Amino acid sequence: MDGKQKEHYTQRQDTSAVRHRKTCKTNEGAECLSQPSSETSNGANKRIPKRAGHLSSPSRDDHVPVYTLVLVLVLSVCTRFYKITEPPHVCWDETHFGKMGSYYINRTFFFDVHPPLGKMLIGLAGYLTGYDGTFPFIKPGDKYEHHNYWGMRAFCAALGSCLPPFAFLIVLELSHSKPAALIAASLLIFDTGCITLSQYILLDPILMFFIMGSVLCMVRFNTQRLRPFSFSWWFWLLLTGVCLSGSLGVKFVGLFVILLVGINTAFDLWRLLGDLSLSLLDFGKHLLARVFGLIMLPLFLYTTIFAVHFIVLNRSGPGDGFFSSAFQSRLIGNNLHNASMPEYLAYGSVITVKNLRIAGGYLHSHWHLYPEGVGAHQQQVTAYLHKDYNNLWLVKRPDNSDDLTGPPELVRQGDIIRLEHKETTRNLHSHFHEAPLTKKHLQVTGYGINGSGDVNDLWQVEVCGGKKGDPVKVLRSKVRFLHRSTSCVLCSSGKTLPKWGWEQVEVTCSPYVKETPNTQWNIEDHINPKLPNISLSVLKPTFLEVLWESHIVMIRGNSGLKPKDNEMNSKPWHWPINYQGLRFSGVNETEYRVYLLGNPVIWWLNLLSLALFVLMLTVASLAKQRGVKMEGMRKVHCHTLMEGGGMLLLGWLLHYLPFYIMGRILYYHHYFPAMLFSSMLTGITLDIFLQNLHLLFSSSISHHLMRGGQFILLLGFIYSFYLFHPLSYGMRGPLAQDPASSMAGLRWMESWEF
């Protein structure tokens, strides 16, 4: 045979040792050769040599240890379902996601910054277990009383219970080591943080279920390389795509696992391209199969999620104001649904004016004044995201003369108007005072008494894309309001005002007159009994327009999540060191307290294992580069570190590092997807480290050290869980600083707030 074939044959001998390592008797792991059957990618009788650097699929002897897997599953279910109904009140973000589940049951439209799959599944779980969607979920601490909330909690706990078994199977597939898989699973079983996140009505266990499912399916698909286009090959490929769509359908951070699978697929295709025994036609088949399974199928399922979302939520609700007027016309109960109103704007009309920036809000005012030191001490003008009586404005002539008897006069391009606030009778006004937040813009206020004001109340109407004399069309015309005295343009900045502004959106007068959505408005509600009405049904958007708009709203909503006054903003560097947790329930001694904090023994072990992995990987890479001869299990361990460990390290980096560049508010629970990868990497790292102690000690001593190390690890996980389990299952009575507390002496860091 030639040199390339010989290299492939040698690699086949080396990697086959992984499949039969249990039959090898020496400490070094003598090679146990086998001849796996080769299949072609197109069904022909030619052989495909196994590509170097990849583990083969397990043989029949390398079966999944069923009893161990069942034990992992039972322990996981027990730790997640224990005291699942406690406490019987709303905890932390249950107030949001439980309420959204209720909205699905009631078919009421709402807005959230995350895609809808997680909330839909929560609502479905509640519906199937007898919850009627009537509990208000107003604030944490509200008692559930007679409402059937356990089904939604149990659904999240069931998905959270799958995480340790998934970790067991992933690590077993990557390392072919049952101890490594058991270590990884134990880290998740006995972690108080993972338990707490899994026991409440939250998106996190649903998200992590799909992330781990994606990784498991990807790893299983990789083992089918020698059986391309077989049933199992297609099954794991398509199931990977399904899980990817689920990850993205719950939260946008699902993009990180999509990127991980994409990188793995790119390397896989690159190796296939280098396989000279594979024709370009067969390579094209592989490429198209992956495009279908990992791109087209997830996109179809992701789009289907939104189609179901829009079909179910067909009634007007609290989320209407975040979306355009055309979007709202779809919703039953919205004032624009099957509505009719005058087509053209006229003097004497009562209107609402909506900013065209996504989530820009309605032009709004109220009796409250700007505080001292914030521009002029006049009436506040803001943009409000919800329907409200204070959004109504009266269109008046510049001289305040209104002919109540004659025919209505239309407002046209270039006209000068006043806008009088219907409730307070103050005019929309601007002047040379700086805006509250956007300092280069001018302040907009409400000014005057009973509609009388001054020249700073005059605004010129400009129809975007129109010409002089064009009428203003309701809903369809993009309108700008140019201030006559200062030559600035009415603008919704998108910035949220402090509490004195009721956390509404800042409205300014921008000196930058370039056309942008921030300075463009449309007339939404229009009341004028003198004008004939037209039906608005022609304005309903298509599904693709609705899909696009909903994503723009979600993305901008995410970017607008900033820390509020005195709100704690967690830092990404806090997370791996377990610096600070989150209060889920209760504060004082008389309350039922639950505190989200990872088991510190497990989290700090993960951190040390990351450093140990980097050290071991560096040593293995240097040895390989220098041509150090590695045979048997040493070579297998080196391969596992670089391939399996490298993939898990990449997963940890992809799910952790992006948070350093995010501008939104961050919380401790954002780290848990990365923690899953860190725990699996710990399992592989510690197992290989323990198995290679014979490099430092004699074979008999190293064997006892390995068994002792495994026992100490498992004992440490269990005992630390015993110490810190009240964090997850609830604490009553004295706080941690009191010697009588169940957590006395366990507040190892001052930043822990239990």
Quick description:
The chain is α+β, with helices and mostly antiparallel strands.
Topology:
Layout: H1 3-19, H2 66-81, H3 94-106, H4 117-128, H5 150-161, H6 163-175, H7 178-189, H8 192-198, H9 204-222, H10 231-250, H11 254-273, H12 280-312, H13 325-328, E1 340-342, E2 350-355, E3 362-369, E4 379-384, E5 393-396, E6 416-421, E7 427-434, E8 442-447, E9 459-463, E10 479-483, E11 489-496, E12 505-510, E13 521-527, E14 533-535, H14 543-559, E15 582-585, E16 594-596, H15 600-625, H16 633-656, H17 672-691, H18 699-724, H19 726-729
Antiparallel strand pairs: 1-14, 2-5, 2-13, 3-4, 4-8, 4-12, 5-6, 6-9, 7-8, 8-12, 9-10, 11-12, 15-16
Description of the structure:
Residues 34-44 have a biased composition (Polar residues). Keywords: Endoplasmic reticulum, Glycosyltransferase, Membrane, Repeat, Transferase, Transmembrane, Transmembrane helix. It is found in: Endoplasmic reticulum membrane. With 754 residues, this protein is α+β, with helices and mostly antiparallel strands. 42% of the residues lie in helices and 12% in strands. It contains 19 helices and 16 strands. It has helices at residues 3-19, 66-81, 94-106, 117-128, 150-161, 163-175, 178-189, 192-198, 204-222, 231-250, 254-273, 280-312, 325-328, 543-559, 600-625, 633-656, 672-691, 699-724, 726-729; strands at residues 340-342, 350-355, 362-369, 379-384, 393-396, 416-421, 427-434, 442-447, 459-463, 479-483, 489-496, 505-510, 521-527, 533-535, 582-585, 594-596. A 6-stranded antiparallel β-sheet has the order 10-9-6-5-2-13, with no helix packed on it. Strands 3, 4, 7, 8, 11 and 12 form a 6-stranded antiparallel β-sheet that branches. Helix 4 (117-128) packs across helix 5 (150-161), helix 5 packs parallel to helix 9 and helix 9 runs antiparallel to helix 10. 43% of the residues are buried. Mean pLDDT is 87; it is low at 1-61.
